[in-house]
Each structure stands twice: as structure tokens, then as C-alpha cells.
Amino acid sequence: MLCRAHFIITTLAATIHLMSRRVTKKTIGIMFTLLAVIASLICCVVWYQKNTTPPKLKQAAAKASFPIYSPNTLPEGYALDDLSVSLSSQALVMALKKSGGGTVSITQTPVPQNFDYESFYKSQITGEQEAPSIYGRGKVGLIDDDMSGSLVTDSTWIIIKSTAEMSAQDMKNIVSGLKPIN
To answer: At what angle do helices 25-50 and 2-20 cross, to 10 degrees?
Structure first.
């Protein structure tokens, strides 16, 4: 991300420098066209990175007996560790790694029959807050002093727990950004 920002700033500085000199309308047109192409490429790269499911997670989703969800909104510095993806008959486990250290574990299981989620939230989560999602009911709060989140969909229960320092808003973004893998 820092590399992209540096590239953009350098390009803009070069453009301003060239524009401050005596240039023709043709040169200005070429520079604006170049900037538009660069901006488009950056948008495409960012979109591709946000909308591409890692291969091991995609393979696990194809084998799972319940819908698997992928985190599409990650806090700054976090990335899905594709090597951490592990699927058993009743659970999928994966991890998000922070560049400076720290891990967020994500566990997905089929929704248990007749499980009382309200009692679970009241007894296990401190400082419970809603985390909006179109796929189900999301909650965030502290479990054992670690920022945690939960999303219950029609078929999958997703539990997220961070060992790194994380704000409730970052956890809400992860929970709200979970999307099913098609």
C-alpha cells in the first residue's frame, strides 16, 4: 500500500513540475491521459486484490459440507494466510496475519441445532456490540480480553478472535465484510 502511495505522489509531483514549465497543450493532454491510465490500473489492482479468494480457501469451500465465508474487508496491515486454511468434516479454520505480528483466527462450523446464541453472547462476550451483515446476525466484543466477533448465518457460524491489539470497529469491519465463497 505504501509503495502505491509513493508511486502516486511521485507521478503527481512530476506532472506538476512539468506543468510549471512552459509546455504545449499536447504535452498536458498526454500527461492527463497518463495519469488517468495509472489511476485506472491502481483501481484494477486494488479491486482484484479485494475480490480474489486465495486458492487453498477456494479449494476448502468446494469440499466443505456447509457454506464457507471469506473476509473481504481487512484492517490495515492484515492479510489472509492461505497456508493456515484447514478443513475438517465439521470446521474450517484460517488465520489473518498482521505484518508487525499478531494473529486473527477465524473458525467456521455448521450452525448447531437448538443452540442458544443469546445466552452464549451474554455469558461469553463483554461489551457486546452489533456488527451489521446482510448474511446474518453479527456481534463483536471481548472474549477473555481478546477482541472477538461472531456471525451466525442460515447455515454457518463464524467465530473470530484476535490475539493482536484490535479496535471494535476493525472487528466489525471484518464481520460485516464476510462474504460467501461461490
So the answer is: 170
Nearest CA-CA partner of 100 in 163, 18, 13: 163
Joined grid coordinates for residue 142: 471481548
In the prediction, which pLDDT does 179 show? 93
Beta strands (DSSP E) in the chain are: 69-71, 78-87, 92-98, 103-110, 126-131, 137-143, 146-152, 156-162, 178-180
Q: How many residues does the chain have?
A: 182
The answer to whether the CB of 56 falls within 8 A of the CB of 84 is no
- Structure confidence by residue, pLDDT tens digits, 109-134: 999 989 888 888 889 889 999 999 99
Residues 95, 104: contact at Cβ < 8 Å? yes
